[in-house]
């Protein structure tokens, strides 16, 4: 009976994790300022994509690169998007901003995936609707 309970609990937690990543979000009532059309690509924790061979790969805020996070172009950070904010990417789900991209990119979001095979599935998608779901409260003066 214990084995059944443990297996059931494990399956339930996996299902809950999947559900939180791929929520159906109603974005019709959000302002246009929070919604953009962006280019969406993918990246992996491979050091060749993150600073070069021999360098430890990680995000701009010091966490490890893992599924569920995204890197955003610096122009989006300058426009008010922040580390820790959640974004909904049409067709892919909800992600947390934890990384940045090279300064040459504009209106681009890079989805972290575990390996190259998953990155190839995403490819390079243009004009994808991306919605900022949570913004940090403005600091009071």
Please explain how this structure is put together.
This protein is an alpha/beta fold. It has one domain: Barwin-like endoglucanases (Beta Barrel). It is built from 3 helices and 6 strands, in the order αββαβββαβ. The longest helix is centred in the first third of the chain and has 20 residues. The N terminus and C terminus are likely disordered. Keywords: Signal. This is 3D domain-containing protein.
Please provide a brief summary of the model:
Residues 1-19 form the signal peptide. The chain contains 3 helices and 6 strands; from the N terminus they run αββαβββαβ.
Topology readout:
Elements: H1 2-21, E1 35-43, E2 69-72, H2 74-78, E3 86-89, E4 93-100, E5 108-112, H3 116-122, E6 125-132
Parallel strand pairs: 1-5, 2-4
Antiparallel strand pairs: 1-6, 2-5, 3-4, 3-6
Protein name: 3D domain-containing protein
Keywords: Signal
Signal peptide: 1-19
Give the CATH class. Answer: Mainly Beta
Number of domains: 1
Structural class: alpha/beta
Instruction: Name the strands of the widest sheet in spatial order.
Output: 1-5-2-4-3-6
Protein name: 3D domain-containing protein
Signal peptide: 1-19
Keywords: Signal
């Amino acid at each position: 009976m214990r084995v059944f309970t443990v297996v059931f609990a494990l399956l339930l937690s996996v299902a809950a994790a999947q559900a939180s990543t791929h929520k159906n979000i109603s974005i019709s009532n959000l302002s246009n300022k929070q919604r953009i059309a962006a280019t969406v690509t993918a990246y992996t924790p491979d050091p060749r994509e993150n600073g070069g061979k021999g360098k430890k790969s990680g995000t701009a805020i010091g966490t490890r690169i893992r599924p569920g996070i995204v890197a955003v172009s610096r122009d989006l950070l300058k426009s008010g998007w922040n580390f820790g904010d959640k974004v909904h990417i049409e067709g892919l789900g909800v992600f947390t901003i934890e990384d940045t991209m090279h300064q040459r990119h504009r209106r681009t979001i890079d989805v972290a995936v575990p390996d190259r095979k998953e990155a190839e599935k995403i490819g390079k998608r243009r004009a994808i609707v991306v919605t900022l779901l949570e913004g940090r409260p403005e600091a009071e003066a």
